[in-house]
Amino acid sequence: MRHETTIPQKIYKVIIYVSCILLAILSIIPFYIMIVNATRGTYEIQSNAISLIPSKFLSSNYKVFEGKSFNPFVGFYNSFIISTGATVLSVYFSSLTAYALVAYNWKLRQAFFTFIMAVMMVPGQLLSVGFYQFMYRIGWTNSYLPLILPAIAAPMTVFFMRQYLIGTLSLDIVNSGRIDGAGEFHIFNRIILPIMKPAIATQAIFAFVASWNNYFMPSILLTNKSKYTMPIMISQLKGDIYKTEYGAVYLGLTLTVLPLFLVYFALSKYIIAGVALGGVKE
Questions:
Q1: Which domain holds residue 20?
Q2: Are residues 27 and 74 in the same domain?
Q3: What averages of pLDDT result for each successive group of 10 residues across the chain (282 residues)?
Q4: 96 occurs within a structural domain
């Protein structure tokens, strides 16, 4: 009987491993094709869009950047400043808000959380015209500030952090810190933030990727070429239907994606723990 029960279990494990490997391959193939297309010429891409073999036009595709005033170093710098600033503000202040919703018992706590959930339903594009007019009046166009400071208010991140704290935070730890004479910000920065490390890493990945790939608001607020982000520069590589250098476009997309891979691989070990514990419900 023991032999009969172990065989189906082994088959079941093999099926799971094979399925995971196939899914991983399907996930990697689009990125691999993008990298391969970055080495191919426009004619090759148009005549045969899919190829798994790299070509020899990488240097010529890079030379197209000069004619298009595409400077990847400037784009990397601008995108890095905006994405890093927005990620830090989003994660820290969302964690602080979630801590206030969990650790403190105040009268309008539930109403405040309901308001945050309601804000999640409002599309950002709906407020873009009024936001641009406000930034124009205070002289913040062509500035990084309107792309960084609004990240302080991140309803989705607050919701995730709150759910994580509900499942992991013990108020006895907070009370122990208060008894020892620690201030509220000291307790949050030295005790609560280390506890929230998995959730912080998870949301940092999502916030960084969202800010790095953001095209809509930077394209509205930034008109100075020296402040263009990578998505804006990529959009300028595309000419009309007869002049588009698709190899250069794919090379630009590849350069844009590389920092996202680095951030993901640096923080990916926290994703499973953060999602599993942060998904605990009341």
A1: 1-32
A2: no
A3: 60 89 91 90 80 85 78 90 95 94 88 88 82 90 92 91 87 86 88 88 91 91 89 79 78 89 81 54 44
A4: yes
Would you state the structure tokens that stand for residue 31, as one six-digit string? 């990125």
Q: What is the CATH number of the domain that holds 260?
A: 1.10.3720.10
Asked if residue 82 lies in contact with residue 149, where contact means CB atoms within 8 angstroms, the answer is no
Q: Do 139 and 217 fall into the same domain?
A: yes
Would 59 be classed as within a structural domain? no
Give the DSSP letter of residue 138: T
Structure token pair of residue 27 = 């996930």
* Three-state secondary structure string covering 32-84: HHHHHHCCCCHHHHHHCCCCCCCCCCHHHHHHHHHHCCCCHHHHHHHHHHHHH
Cβ-contact 99, 186 below 8 angstroms: no
Q: Answer yes or no: do 252 and 120 share one domain.
A: yes
Distance (Å, whole) CA 169 – CA 32: 42
Structural domain includes residue 51: no
Give residue 242's pLDDT: 61
Q: What is the DSSP letter of 56?
A: S
Instruction: Please answer whether residues 188 and 96 qualify as being in contact, where contact means their C-beta atoms are separated by less than 8 angstroms.
Output: yes
167 in helix, strand or coil? helix
